[in-house]
Amino acid sequence: MFKYIVKRLLISIIILLGVSIIIYTMVRLMPTDFVDTKYASQLSSGTITQADIDHFKELYGLHDNSFGGIMKGYFTWLGNMLKGDFGISFKYEKPVGQVIAENMWISFAIALVATILQFAISIPLGISSATHQYSIRDYTVTVFTMIGLSLPTYFFAAIVIKIFSVDLGWFPSNGLIYPTASYPENFAGAMAKFGDILHHLTLPIFVSVILSLGGLMRYTRTNMLEVLNTDYIRTARAKGLSEKKVIYKHAFRNTLIPLATLLAGILPGLFGGMMITEQVFGIPGIGNKAYIALKDGDVPFIMGYNMFLAVLTVIGTLLSDIMYSIVDPRVKLK
Predict the structure, then answer these.
(1) Which of 195, 285, 321, 333 has the most other CB atoms within 10 Å of its CB?
(2) 161-177: pLDDT as tens digits
(3) Which one, of 163, 151, 268, lies nearest residue 212 by Cα?
(4) Candidates 1.20.1080.10, 3.40.190.10, 1.10.443.10, 1.10.3720.10; correct CATH number of 100-327?
(5) CA 128 to chain centre
């Protein structure tokens, strides 16, 4: 196991290096950069000249988009990164690591609650659908799955805001707390502020859960059907075991084995934020910050954020493989 982990980590270094080259090159080849975006209005109004723009690009290291210039910029970034310096964000004017650390926890809280609810709802529904194949219940779950997989986030979020915020007025449509709210610096004030935040996050969590149910339900249903058709399940039934015991003691345990592979995607999803959801609901999470930085061509932040996600993905994949070998003794890591 130790040799396997060391080998995977060494391979991961090569993978991360390749990912960083691809991301940096793609960012530098974007049609506009941070300087063009920031000073577009001043340039059109004549406040500054093109010579000023070129000077600013040189200061930001964005003046040379030739292959040599991009590679020079990449190796400069790589050298600083290896020293633990991810640079200063152009947009937020703070160290990239500080921006990520300050804004990822609200995204983590939303994603954690949404993930727990997703598993708590999807797995039972998937099992129920599989054990009642071709019934009304199965068709209902299947339709619900297709709706969840088909609806775009921004479209469904807009419908939810229209119904629950605009028409009914039950929940706020954006932000974390009411702008006019003020809370005293004591326990009662902290609890009131926490309740305000929960009230604001109800709709984003609801949207995230509904749109993520479909894939996991279908995944659970498919695996459950496969397990229910195996010989050892037929043997268990032939021995006279109750259907409940057959499903939840024998079939369900083996259905969970493929679910271990989902760990690879959960880890970056927890810390990486939900870019579209946070943007629609105006939540100042890491996903929203990344969207703004990407739109404005903030090279240091884009690189730091994407490499952060890449590292989490590599770790998640490694943990997924290890977990798979633990839950299924037939799998050997070599």
Answers:
(1) 285
(2) 999 988 888 888 888 77
(3) 151
(4) 1.10.3720.10
(5) 28
